[in-house]
């Protein structure tokens, strides 16, 4: 059974006003004081962000329990200094980001200017174990067309600096301002993958391989494929669904590679359009079908994803849970729909943030 780990970035907010608070250093200090050996929480690019990483899990129920536990622990540490956490992929309220004290982050700010300062966005990265870099690259080459579907399912950033963006995942539009971000062409082999990344670093435009911000990549630290398209999800159950489907995609595409099936080769230009469509509308309008790259109703595309990964889901014991979770997601909507519904009911973006913080903290 392939193991799965999840990294989530959370927004630190004032529990009363909803304003983002640059208190990551204080939250981390409190976490270290409570547990000197804790290795779950880390700082991120800005002081208004806090990241945690789960341990590798083979059981998805256990992964879900750990995500919920980490969120509650983050809320507890933040609450001790009068702060809250919210699983929001972008701040609905205006904010002036505060750069964390870090030589790498300073380099980014000096190198890329304004786009760096606009990167106060929170994602969810899913790591799935692979047997080798060769298997990992075979997976990367084959799951590319399905990544926009995961984007649409996780979309949770409709507001930006006090405005309705019109997008379900505006975070993805901000993130893609990095020169190395987005979909990739097929690599063909692990050797070519590593050569491509080395060539990118050699240009001097990016600092190192950690800045190869592909939508999906080989992890530089772990023997995993890392899928990076998802917004941090408002509900932990959605994060578990995304992780479940990523593992099933990895297993399905790895089996195709072992069977000698060729990787599909849609052009990057078409994948960018599919990604834009997913970011713009989430699950509210058509998605581009991963096979035909033509418009198709979102529920049918999600059904196609379940069918494509069906054998892997059944083998891991996740089929029934995934079916149920997809049905619930289509019924209640992703985080973007929930945020817009909250705004419609309350008329206040501050109330949107504080309610999302309450939900994040369980």
Automatic annotation (TrEMBL):
<dbReference type="InterPro" id="IPR014746">
    <property type="entry name" value="Gln_synth/guanido_kin_cat_dom"/>
</dbReference>
<dbReference type="InterPro" id="IPR011793">
    <property type="entry name" value="YbdK"/>
</dbReference>
<dbReference type="GO" id="GO:0016874">
    <property type="term" value="F:ligase activity"/>
</dbReference>
<dbReference type="Pfam" id="PF04107">
    <property type="entry name" value="GCS2"/>
</dbReference>
<comment type="similarity">
    <text>Belongs to the glutamate--cysteine ligase type 2 family. YbdK subfamily.</text>
</comment>
<protein>
    <recommendedName>
        <fullName>Putative glutamate--cysteine ligase 2</fullName>
        <ecNumber>6.3.2.2</ecNumber>
    </recommendedName>
</protein>
<keyword id="KW-0547">Nucleotide-binding</keyword>
<keyword id="KW-0436">Ligase</keyword>
<dbReference type="InterPro" id="IPR050141">
    <property type="entry name" value="GCL_type2/YbdK_subfam"/>
</dbReference>
<keyword id="KW-0067">ATP-binding</keyword>
<comment type="function">
    <text>ATP-dependent carboxylate-amine ligase which exhibits weak glutamate--cysteine ligase activity.</text>
</comment>
<dbReference type="InterPro" id="IPR006336">
    <property type="entry name" value="GCS2"/>
</dbReference>
């Amino acid at each position: 059974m392939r193991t799965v780990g999840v990294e989530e970035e959370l927004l630190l907010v004032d529990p009363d006003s909803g304003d983002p608070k640059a208190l990551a250093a204080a939250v981390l200090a409190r976490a270290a004081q409570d547990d000197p050996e804790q290795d779950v929480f880390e700082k991120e690019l800005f002081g208004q962000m806090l990241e945690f990483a789960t341990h590798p899990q083979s059981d998805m129920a256990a992964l879900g329990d750990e995500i919920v536990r980490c969120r509650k622990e983050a809320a507890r540490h933040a609450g001790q200094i009068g702060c809250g956490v919210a699983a929001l992929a972008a701040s609905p309220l205006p904010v002036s980001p505060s750069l964390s004290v870090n030589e790498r982050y300073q380099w980014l700010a000096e190198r890329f200017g304004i786009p760096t300062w606009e990167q106060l966005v929170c994602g969810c990265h899913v790591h799935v174990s692979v047997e080798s870099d060769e298997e990992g690259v075979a997976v990367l080459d084959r799951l590319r067309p399905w990544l926009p579907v995961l984007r649409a399912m996780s979309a949770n950033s409709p507001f930006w600096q006090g405005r309705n963006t019109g997008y379900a995942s505006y975070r993805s539009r901000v993130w893609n301002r990095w020169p190395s971000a987005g979909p990739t062409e097929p690599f063909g082999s692990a050797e070519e993958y590593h050569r491509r990344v080395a060539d990118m670093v050699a240009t001097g435009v990016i600092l190192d391989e950690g800045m190869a911000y592909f939508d999906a990549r080989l992890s530089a630290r772990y023997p995993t494929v890392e899928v990076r398209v998802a917004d941090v999800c408002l509900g932990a159950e959605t994060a578990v669904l995304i992780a479940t489907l990523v593992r099933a995609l990895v297993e399905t595409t790895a089996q195709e590679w072992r069977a000698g099936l060729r990787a599909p080769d849609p052009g990057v230009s078409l994948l960018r359009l599919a990604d834009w469509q997913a970011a713009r509308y989430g699950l509210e309008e058509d998605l581009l079908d991963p096979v035909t790259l033509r418009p198709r109703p979102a529920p049918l595309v999600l059904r196609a994803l379940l069918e494509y990964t069906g054998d892997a889901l059944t083998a891991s014991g996740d089929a029934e849970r995934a079916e149920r979770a997809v049905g619930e997601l289509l019924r209640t909507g992703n985080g973007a729909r929930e945020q817009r519904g909250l705004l419609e009911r309350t008329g206040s973006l501050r109330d949107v943030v504080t309610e999302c913080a309450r939900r994040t903290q369980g």
